[in-house]
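Subject: design request, 169 residues
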């Protein structure tokens, strides 16, 4: 609550000063950073001056004007175990859903390109090299190998038969 005669600026300065004092009291136990597009997540485990531990997760998002908006979640010792269990559970569910969707996506692509996402075997690479050196067009190579034009171009690059610039990169 703001005192009379206590400006918002003074209030914010007071909060900032307290945060600085508190940060001097904290010992970092662990720190990590995860970048996701315009967002960066800072994960810090710290020990407070009173010897208690806590976890701080900060979401820092770059704004259009170049500044950063930050949101922070702080979890104290008594909440860590349950929080970890719930986050782990949520991640496991999502990973299964991602995996299921990926399988469905691959099955859909394989309707058009039967060998999509399959490992190239040495015989295929040998045949691809021969066909490519004969001057067979990309569309025909794609159909012959049951793979997308992008997959064929990528394999030709890895085999050193074309340079990345030749594939339009």
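Subject: RE: design request

Done. Sequence follows.
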């Amino acid at each position: 609550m703001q005192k009379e005669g206590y400006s918002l600026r003074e209030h914010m300065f007071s909060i900032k000063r307290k945060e600085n004092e508190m940060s001097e009291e904290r010992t970092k136990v662990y720190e990590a950073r995860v970048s996701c597009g315009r967002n960066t997540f800072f994960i810090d485990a710290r020990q407070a001056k009173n010897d208690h531990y806590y976890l701080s997760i900060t979401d820092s998002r770059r704004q259009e004007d170049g500044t950063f908006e930050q949101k922070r979640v702080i979890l104290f010792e008594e909440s860590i175990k349950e929080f970890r269990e719930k986050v782990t559970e949520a991640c496991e569910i999502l990973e299964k859903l991602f995996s299921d969707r990926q399988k469905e996506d691959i099955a859909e692509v394989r309707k058009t390109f039967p060998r999509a996402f399959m490992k190239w075997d040495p015989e295929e690479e040998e045949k691809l090299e021969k066909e490519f050196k004969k001057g067979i067009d990309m569309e025909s190579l794609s159909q012959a190998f049951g793979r997308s034009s992008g997959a064929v171009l990528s394999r030709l690059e890895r085999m050193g038969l074309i340079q990345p610039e030749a594939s339009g990169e």
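The chain has two domains: 8-84, 122-167.
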